[in-house]
Amino acid sequence: MPAQRPLFPAAALALVLALTATGCGATVETSATADGKAITLTNCGRKVTYDKVPERVVTNDVGITELMFALGLEDRMAGFAMPDDKGDLSGVPWKDGYDKVPWLSKDQLTKENVLDARADLVFAGWNYGFREDGGFTPAALKKLGIPSYVLTESCRNGRTETSRGIMPPLDALYADLTNLGRLFGVEKRAATLIADFKKQVADVRAQAPAAADRPTVFLYDSGQDQPFTSGRFAAPEQIISEAGGTNVMHDLADSWTAVGWETVVERDPDVIVICDYGDVSAEQKKDFLLSYAPLRDVSAVKHRRIFVLDYVDLVESPRNPSAIARLGAYLRTVAGGA
């Protein structure tokens, strides 16, 4: 797996550095809860009330952790859990957050992690830490007196017991930034980030190919017997569409899910985007795709149109706009016949 992680465009990096220069986001503004008032947020379609501003937040996984860092909330964190297969974290704009906040576990969060850290809020998601097996759920944590916040990309939507996603992926990102801004009293910082992200996305959208020329794209996460991919509620849906492509699995009313190879062959994508993480490197995934006989007549394979994005680019995170910009530049070369 490549060691270097993708960086934000210069404008976004400048924004983050400028915001960081103002000091910890948790002290820049005053939250309603700082005056002793509870605050109620809508999370996964439910009203959730928090009695105070959390001071010892524990997060699960890289995208969720970086949402906190992007808001300047590392001083409000007691630690994070994250596998060590997420690439080089030293090049991100909020490197100082990783230096400052304890790395509690290289696996998913457990009740023991949370209790040992004396957490007063767990920020995780379904399949991003929260899970029924092992009993690590918001309901179980509530019994321990520990509140939770659920990543909006991962909200269960009721279509099946496990299907996820209740709104377009970028809306999920903006919803979480808005909610966290309110909870921690950093509304202005959240609004500035959202405005900058929307401008980055709009700039890419303005350069996108005409509708008739938009390349079709298949997101390949992992799997050989059956590929794991993205439906319309995971971040790749809008990363692809705002970049100027069309997700061939748009009709799947789920976030991350498995399909059959026959479906990929039938839909014949122009481009395959590889999600880079885990024990199988992006180069190994590419070699598999190029050598897998059932895919030999798929356009993306025939023309070797395979583009790599990092895991954190493709889950809800503050790196999504940067991913849109990079994929957009690539798709324009495909649409232009390069």
UniProtKB/TrEMBL annotation:
InterPro entries linked: ABC_Transporter_SBP (IPR050902), ABC_transptr_periplasmic_BD (IPR002491)
Source superkingdom: Bacteria
Family matches, as PROSITE patterns: FE_B12_PBP, PROKAR_LIPOPROTEIN
Signal peptide coordinates: 1-26
Keywords associated with the record: Signal
UniProt cross-references to Pfam families, sorted A to Z: Peripla_BP_2
Residues spanning the membrane: none
Domain Fe/B12 periplasmic-binding: 56-338
The family this protein is said to belong to: Belongs to the bacterial solute-binding protein 8 family.
PANTHER family named in the record: IRON(III) DICITRATE-BINDING PROTEIN, VITAMIN B12-BINDING PROTEIN
Protein name as it appears in the record: ABC transporter substrate-binding protein
Organism of derivation: Streptomyces antibioticus
